[in-house]
Amino acid sequence: MTDVVLLLTALAAVACGLAAGAFLAFSAFVLPALDALDDEGLAAMRSVNSHAVRPPFMVALFGPAVACLGLAVWSVASWGAAGSGWVLAGAVAYVLGAVGVTVTRNVPLNDRMAALPASGGSGEWHELAGSWLRWNHVRLLLTAAGAALLTAGAVVMS
């Protein structure tokens, strides 16, 4: 069982790191580039949002969350086992960051962006883009922390 948990932890750490990379891309250059545009930036962000709600991104976002939930259960049930604290912390960080922030912050902002007029809403677009970017930074930090903590847990387990 320990080998299975170690493998799942390592795979979850990699998956969380990949999700953090996607969030990094948005924080570092995608959203700043879109925010530099007016109506075109809003249209592009709407297109991104419509393409995000498809299996590849949903699997990349929620797959690690499912693994993290399973690892969190293992951590609590095996409290005191090598790496269990690290694994629990990593799982919680990822789920709170990737799922919690996405559902409670970024999706509502996406919905507000969708309701803006196609042209002439650039002032509100820039305001929403700024809020979206700040919350994406939070997602990035929490998912990267999740990856790092899960990696630490895997190292301690091995």
Write structural notes for this entry:
The chain has 158 residues and is mainly α. The chain has one domain (2-157). The protein is built from 5 helices and no strands. The chain has helices at 2-35, 39-52, 55-77, 84-115, 122-157. α1 runs antiparallel to α5. The longest helix has 36 residues, at 122-157. The chain is elongated.
How would you summarize the topology of this molecule?
Blueprint lengths: L1 H34 L3 H14 L2 H23 L6 H32 L6 H36 L1
The overall number of domains is: 1
Number of DSSP strand runs: 0
Can you summarize the main beta sheet? none
Low-pLDDT regions: none
Shape verdict: elongated
Q: What is the beta-strand fraction?
A: under 5%
Summed over residues and divided by their number, the pLDDT gives a mean of: 94
Alpha plus pi helix count: 5
What portion of residues is helical? Answer: over 70%
Secondary structure class reads mainly alpha
**Secondary-structure element order, N to C:** HHHHH
Radius of gyration: 18 Å
> How far do the termini sit from each other?
13 Å
